[in-house]
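About this split. The held-out portion is used to measure sequence recovery: a designer receives only the structure tokens and must propose an amino acid at every position. Recovery is the fraction of positions where the proposal matches the reference. Here is one held-out target exactly as it appears in the evaluation file.
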């Protein structure tokens, strides 16, 4: 009997897996376990007999054949965030949009420390007793993983962004044994997987009372950390305690460094991210699944948090968050925090918020129909997407997409064979400069034909 395909047949074998690991929790036979693949990502592997009932697929955020009632983020948000007062096709359901930071946690966090503030607040109020967030794996800090915190001190130890593959499978193994309520921090696809699990298992709805959504520009392979360590002068087997967002409080928010320790001399080595080139707009070391994600702002979380890549906030190297509250509880935590003087926030207009994630909207909405077309052409399956909100793209932007997809694949293959940043940079130089050339043409044309410029020309012609 092999009636329903498994997550391995439909998702892993189509390179759509993001490694969230909820399939391992959902499998009634414990037939799945998580392992590193050859490209530095976590994927499920079969470790026991499959009952062929497809439970694993029901929680997969990239399931190409989901049930109609939970087909996309739209259906799921109708189920989980029905109380939200506003909605917008680009960002989903929401209550309020803010920008600002936490007095207490700003300097020890990646952006403004609002994630740590919200979670601490929920813990102190007794609304939750446990938090699943991403922390160092062991005392040597060789890698990161999801871990359970039960106190403020434990939670703070897990602050800061880790651009490192993680999986929820290790903590979900323990969720049924935990007494009390749980909050979880995660990027959009992980949050979607949790919502799917809550949908099919009402006890999880009661147990997981709050989701902190991390706005995500793409999940990177472990190779990304190895590359940055190598760029800082530490070879891939010798780094420990990688740190992705070392702030320079005397500079701008974007002027941060990567750092890690070397096992050779136990010294910390750092490298300015500006010096390694564009790691986000190029697709380097990114998971393929991210190219089929249209949830830019973590639409299914109670609260979504990102970096305020907006003037004047990005001029402040101490870091600032953009914040979208979606549930009533999230809005209350934020309003109470403002009133108590614990967080410094101001309202942000929808347009300004959209502007703060402009690059991600361009790539993941405007570029998506082209990428889906390419995938279909190559006989690959793609999960149902809300392409009605994506808009149309110009030829020059489609060329940029073509090269980004190429850079993504080539970077992973290249690092697998040459785990040294000097060799890698040399081998990637040609394709990266081609991508840069087409990106410059696209940016130039976009600026030339922007609404502002066209309005100015129209005004001149009229006068
Ligand atoms: C992979 C990734 C890509 C991102 N891309 C963007 C982007 O394109 N645009 C943007 O505006 N913001 C992006 N961010 C979010 C940004 O870096 C901050 O995490 C966010 O603004 C919250 O900042 P904070 O100061 O409030 O968080 P903090 O108070 O520092 O707390 C961060 C919380 O996130 C948890 N965490 C860290 N790494 C991970 C992870 N990999 N998965 C799940 N939880 C994690 C920590 O355990 C901690 O609880 C990204 C984050 C990640 C992890």
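Reference sequence for scoring:
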């Amino acid at each position: 009997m092999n009636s329903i395909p498994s997550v391995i047949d439909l998702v892993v074998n189509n390179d759509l897996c993001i490694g969230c690991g909820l399939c391992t929790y959902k499998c009634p036979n414990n037939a799945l376990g998580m392992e590193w693949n050859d490209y530095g990502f976590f994927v499920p592997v079969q470790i026991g007999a499959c009952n062929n009932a497809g439970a694993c697929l029901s929680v997969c955020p990239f399931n190409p054949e989901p049930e109609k009632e939970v087909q996309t983020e739209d259906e799921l948000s109708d189920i989980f965030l029905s109380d939200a007062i506003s909605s917008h096709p680009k960002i989903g359901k929401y209550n309020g949009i803010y920008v600002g930071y936490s007095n207490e946690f700003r300097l020890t966090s990646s952006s403004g420390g609002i994630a740590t503030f919200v979670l601490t607040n929920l813990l102190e109020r007794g609304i939750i007793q446990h938090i699943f967030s991403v922390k160092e794996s062991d005392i040597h800090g060789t890698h990161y993983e999801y871990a359970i915190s039960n106190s403020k001190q434990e939670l703070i130890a897990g602050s800061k962004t880790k651009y490192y593959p993680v999986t929820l499978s290790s903590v979900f193994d323990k969720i049924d044994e935990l007494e009390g309520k749980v909050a979880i921090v995660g990027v959009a696809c992980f949050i979607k997987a949790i919502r799917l699990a809550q949908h099919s298992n009402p006890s999880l709805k009661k147990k997981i009372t709050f989701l902190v959504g991390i706005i995500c520009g793409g999940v990177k392979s472990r190779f990304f950390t190895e590359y940055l360590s190598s760029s800082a002068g530490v070879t891939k087997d010798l780094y420990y305690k990688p740190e992705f967002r070392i702030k320079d409080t005397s500079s701008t928010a974007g002027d941060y460094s990567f750092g890690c320790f070397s096992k050779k001399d136990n010294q910390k080595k750092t490298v300015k991210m500006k010096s390694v080139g564009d790691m986000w707009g190029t697709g380097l070391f990114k998971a393929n699944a991210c190219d089929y994600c249209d949830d830019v702002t973590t639409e299914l979380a109670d609260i979504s948090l990102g970096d305020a890549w907006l003037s004047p906030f990005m001029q402040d190297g101490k870091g600032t968050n953009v914040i979208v509250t979606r549930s009533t509880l999230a809005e209350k935590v934020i309003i109470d925090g403002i009133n108590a003087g614990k967080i410094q926030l101001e309202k942000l207009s929808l347009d300004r918020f959209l502007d703060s994630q402009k690059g991600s909207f361009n790539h993941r909405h405007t570029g998506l129909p082209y990428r889906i077309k390419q995938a279909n052409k190559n006989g690959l399956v793609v999960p149902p997407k809300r392409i009605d909100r994506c808009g149309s793209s110009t030829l020059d932007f489609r060329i940029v997409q073509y090269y980004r997809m190429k850079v993504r694949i080539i970077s992973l293959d290249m690092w697998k064979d040459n785990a040294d940043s000097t060799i890698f940079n040399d081998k990637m130089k040609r394709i990266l400069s081609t991508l840069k050339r087409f990106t410059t043409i696209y940016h130039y044309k976009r600026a030339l034909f922007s609404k502002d410029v066209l309005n100015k020309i129209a005004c001149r012609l009229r006068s």
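Annotator remark: The mean pLDDT is 95.
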